[in-house]
């Protein structure tokens, strides 16, 4: 009986296969995200009551976003000076006034809503918030007195959405020593700020959802998980190593994923609690290396037992997750609950990805032609993407 040689392709890839791989590689590189798969255009805001019918807080914005919207660098030399920012404040404040509306929502829908006046009277400053340097602009909102009963405060924010597709506002509403968190991701969204103290369940729901969303939109994490489980589509992989067996054991796959989960849970928690800290750039480079190495290893088999290397790479990914969590900010009232909920959300998103891909792995395993052409093609494309991120993040 002839024996399949599992250590190399059964037949060489034809010219058309190589052409497809090259075209797909070029397409991915031309349409790839920016160097960090986690850095989106993000603004931050905080608002809290400050006496009757008055509110105070701030907007914290990226200078890069402001430059893109308003061109506040007059000589276009790429070096934004603080004096140039100060000189541009009237334009910045005018832009924000036109794109931020706050009003009291009446309890009776038939009553007229009253719009609050927004003031930018205090001086701005540069602040280190959520892991990046932002222009923090203090604001106050004064709402006229009204006879109608007020149900809640409403807010509509529309800045930057017309020029930045990935822009979002992370809003913290403080009330009675409790904090509620909101995300504004489109210009038409109206956010309702209730006059009640947030509960731990509200906090858990927010961070759980954000954990799921983060891994689904974190392309480097998704590709790493895909590269990690792709070997299970090959006949020669079982029990965490290349062996030549024909069985596809879900439990073996789950062992690797559990190793990855345990590792990134450790570093996510330690980093979020400020026990562990490394420059975010190095963590992002390490994540990119993990993507490229894991993909290349599908073809080269440098490492046959993936449990240990998966755990080590998981430590790096945990730091990446922690960076996203720091961008959101931790609940002061429910700090541990925030970390646990975000981590659990990441796990839910990760498991969803695996179970969506598992039928594909099973299908590939049943078709030898697909195995020996599609699997290495996918591995090469993932490796190219990982290599691209390495160069971009250096």
From TrEMBL:
Spans traversing the lipid bilayer: 207-232, 253-276, 282-299, 306-324, 336-358, 370-391
Keyword Transmembrane belongs to the record: yes
InterPro entries: Put_HupE_UreJ (IPR032809)
Pfam family of the protein (one): HupE_UreJ_2
Cleaved signal peptide residues: none
Keywords (A to Z) from UniProt: Membrane, Transmembrane, Transmembrane helix
Protein name, UniProt field: HupE/UreJ protein
Originating species: Kangiella koreensis (strain DSM 16069 / JCM 12317 / KCTC 12182 / SW-125)
